[in-house]
């Protein structure tokens, strides 16, 4: 039997990468600044690549993929569309993504602590995802 903590941590990371990609996609179409588009597109690619690694590990360990919760996706969609509907600026988009990065880092760190018996590879994947979120958050500061 596979380590339950390993599977749970990988599943949470899977949901996290999917949530990030969805959030970036929702804002990308509204971005005016080409440099900001590149930052977001590059980050999306990093999330997709890590998501592929996570899928490989989940398959290897016999785990199921995990989608972000409907509530999380719905709340994100509403917030994004309302905020960008009121102010369709790059500043608003950068702020929304930065907020998402903060929530993602917080959740991932919580799961890293909660699933302390996960294997070192899965913990490394989670730390890498936290790092990607941190990097994106820092890159967006100049657009706030």
Structure description:
80% of the residues lie in helices and 0% in strands. With 144 residues, it is an all-alpha fold. It has one domain (4-143): Ferritin, core subunit, four-helix bundle (Ferritin, Up-down Bundle), CATH 1.20.1260.10. Helix 1 packs antiparallel against helix 4 (90-114). The longest helix has 27 residues, at 34-60. The radius of gyration is 15 Å and the shape is elongated. The mean pLDDT is 92.
Give the uncertain stretches in residue-range form: none
Task: Count up the domains.
Answer: 1
CATH topology: Ferritin
Q: Tell me, what's the shape?
A: elongated
**CATH architecture call:** Up-down Bundle
* CATH homologous superfamily heading: Ferritin, core subunit, four-helix bundle
User: Which CATH C-level class is it?
Assistant: Mainly Alpha
**Mean pLDDT over the residues:** 92
> What kind of oligomer do you see?
single chain
- The total of beta strands comes to 0
Q: Helix fraction?
A: over 70%
Structural class: mainly alpha
Please work out how many helical segments DSSP would assign.
Answer: 5
For the largest beta-sheet, the strand count, sense and barrel status come to: none
Element order: H for helix, E for strand = HHHHH
Q: Radius of gyration, rounded? A: 15 Å
> Distance between the terminal alpha carbons, to the nearest Å?
47 Å
What proportion strand?
A: under 5%
């Amino acid at each position: 039997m596979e380590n339950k903590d390993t599977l749970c941590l990988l599943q949470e990371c899977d949901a996290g990468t999917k949530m990030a990609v969805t959030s970036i996609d929702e804002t990308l179409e509204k971005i005016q600044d080409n440099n900001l588009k590149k930052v977001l597109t590059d980050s999306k690619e990093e999330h997709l690549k890590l998501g592929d690694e996570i899928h490989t590990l989940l398959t290897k360990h016999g785990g199921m993929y995990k989608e972000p919760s409907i509530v999380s996706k719905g709340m994100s969609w509403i917030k994004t569309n309302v905020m960008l509907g009121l102010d369709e600026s790059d500043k608003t988009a950068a702020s929304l993504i930065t907020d998402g990065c903060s929530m993602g880092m917080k959740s991932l760190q919580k799961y890293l602590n909660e699933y302390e018996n996960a294997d070192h590879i899965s913990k490394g994947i989670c730390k890498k995802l936290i790092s990607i979120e941190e990097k994106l958050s820092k890159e967006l500061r100049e657009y706030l």
